[in-house]
Design a protein that fits this description.
alpha/beta; Peroxisomal Thiolase, Chain A, domain 1; 2 domains; 9-stranded mixed β-sheet; two-stranded antiparallel ribbon; 15 helices; globular; Thiolase family protein; Thiolase-like; Thiolase_N; Thiolase
C-alpha cells in the first residue's frame, strides 16, 4: 500500500442556509480544497460524495453526488455516493484513502454536504428516526423510556449520559462545562455555526431537552459542506502543497446488544495502523452530538483512564492551552453538525491544526491529530464509527 496524504482541505461555514443549493455549498468547499492543494479538478480520478439526509429532506435520491458536484469542476469524474450515518464524511475519507493507497487512482476527492434545515422543520427529525431499525421502532422507543422528546437521538444520548454518571463522578455541571468550553472554542472559528461566552449556570437554565441535556448541550441542525484532496506525497510535492499525512482511517460497525466496544475497537485498529498510541495524540476532534459524549469518547479512545475524563475537564486539560485540547473547532455543539459533512469538517480542522494555521485556536505544538465519529443506532450503542489520525508532514 502506498503512503497517502491530505494535500488540501476546504469547507463552507456551517449554519442555516435555506437559500443555498447543495451545488453551491459543494462548489465552495471543493474549490477551496483544490486551491489549497494547488490542484485542478481534472486531476481527480475518483470522487466520494457523502450525504445522509437529502432523500428525506429534499427528495434527492440515487445519484445525489452527481447532482451536487454540478459547477465544481468534478462533473464527469467517476463518483461513488457514500452514506454511513454520522460517520458518512469520514467514511468517504476512508474510501478515498483506500483508492489512492491501493493504486486505483493517484488523486481522489472526498466531499460531504448536508442541508438539514427546511421550511418544514419536521423533516430533519424524520432523517434521524430513519437511522433506527424501522422494524423495531416500538421496541426501541419502549427500551429508551425517556418520554419521547421528539428527538430520539437526544433521548439516546441522555441515556448514555445517565449510564456514564452511574459509573463515574460526572455531574450535570460537567456536561454543561463541556458546552461552555466548546462554545468558547467556536467563537474563535469563523466557520462555526455558533460560538460565544456561556456560563455553566446559563447552560443549566436553558430549555430542557432530555434527561440531563439542555439545549446548549445538543448539536444544532446544520447545513454545510467540506472537502479534502487525497493523493500521494510525491504528487502533493509536485503541486507545491503543504500536505498532512493520513496515518490511519478505521471504520467500525456495532454488534446488536453490545454497548461500549464500538469506539474502543475502532480506535485500537486506527492506533495499530498509525503505529501510535493515545499518548501520542496532540489534538482531538470528537463527536459531541451531545456534550456528555465528549467525556465518554475521551475514555473510549484511551486518552485517559476510565472515569477520569471529568477531572481532566475540570482542571482545564481539554481546553485550548491545556495539555490535550478537545474540539478546538467548537465541536459539533458549536461548529455545527451537517451530518454528511461533519467527518470531513473534523478533518479540515485537524489538517489545519497540524499545519499550524488555526490562528487564535491553534494548539501549540500540534503534530498528531485524531478525529472520532459515531452515528446511527443499533441498540444499545451507535451503529457506525470511524477514527481518523493525521500527522504533520
Amino acid at each position: 500500500m502506498r503512503d497517502v496524504v491530505v494535500a488540501g482541505v476546504g469547507m463552507t461555514r456551517f449554519g442555516r442556509f435555506l437559500d443555498r443549493s447543495f451545488a453551491s455549498l459543494v462548489t465552495e468547499a471543493v474549490g477551496a480544497a483544490l486551491t489549497d492543494a494547488g490542484a485542478t479538478a481534472d486531476s481527480a480520478g475518483l470522487v466520494y460524495y457523502s450525504n445522509s439526509g437529502a432523500g428525506l429532506i429534499q427528495g434527492q435520491e440515487s445519484v445525489r453526488g452527481q447532482h451536487a458536484v454540478r459547477g465544481s469542476g468534478l462533473e464527469g469524474i467517476p463518483l461513488i455516493n457514500v452514506e454511513n450515518a454520522c460517520a458518512s464524511g469520514s467514511t468517504a475519507v476512508n474510501q478515498a484513502w483506500l483508492a489512492v493507497a491501493a493504486g486505483q487512482v493517484d488523486v481522489a476527492v472526498a466531499v460531504g454536504a448536508e442541508k438539514l434545515n427546511h421550511v418544514d422543520k419536521s423533516r430533519a427529525f424524520v432523517v434521524m428516526t430513519a437511522a433506527l431499525d424501522q422494524d423495531r421502532l416500538d421496541e426501541i422507543y419502549a427500551d429508551l423510556g425517556e418520554g419521547g422528546t421528539g428527538s430520539v437521538f437526544m433521548d439516546i444520548y441522555a441515556r448514555f449520559a445517565r449510564w456514564y454518571r452511574e459509573r463515574t463522578d460526572a455531574t450535570q455541571n460537567d456536561f454543561a462545562q463541556v458546552a461552555v468550553k466548546n462554545h468558547a472554542h467556536g467563537a474563535l472559528n469563523p466557520k462555526a455555526q455558533y460560538g460565544g461566552v456561556l456560563t455553566v449556570e446559563e447552560v443549566l437554565a436553558a430549555r430542557p431537552i432530555s434527561g440531563d441535556l439542555t439545549l446548549p448541550m445538543c448539536a444544532p441542525m446544520s447545513d454545510g459542506a467540506a472537502a479534502a484532496v487525497i493523493t500521494t506525497p510525491e504528487i502533493a510535492t509536485r503541486w507545491g502543497a503543504e500536505p498532512a499525512r493520513l496515518l490511519a482511517t478505521a471504520i467500525g460497525a456495532a454488534r446488536p446488544g453490545v454497548y461500549g466496544e464500538l469506539v474502543p475497537d475502532t480506535a485500537r485498529r486506527a492506533y495499530e495502523m498509525a503505529g501510535l498510541g493515545p499518548e501520542d495524540i496532540d489534538v482531538v476532534e470528537c463527536h459531541d452530538a451531545a456534550s456528555p459524549a465528549e467525556l465518554i469518547v475521551m475514555e473510549e479512545l484511551g486518552l485517559c483512564e476510565p472515569g477520569k475524563a471529568p477531572a481532566l475537564l475540570r482542571e482545564g486539560a481539554t481546553t485550548l492551552g491545556g495539555r490535550l485540547p478537545i474540539n478546538p473547532s467548537g465541536g459539533l455543539g458549536s461548529k455545527g453538525h451537517p451530518v454528511g459533512a461533519t467527518g470531513l469538517g473534523q478533518l479540515v480542522e485537524l489538517v489545519d491544526q497540524v499545519r499550524g494555521r488555526c490562528g487564535d485556536r491553534q494548539v501549540d505544538g500540534a503534530r498528531i491529530g485524531l478525529a472520532e465519529n459515531a452515528g446511527g443506532y443499533i441498540g444499545p450503542d451507535a451503529a457506525a464509527a470511524s477514527v481518523t489520525i493525521v500527522g504533520a508532514a
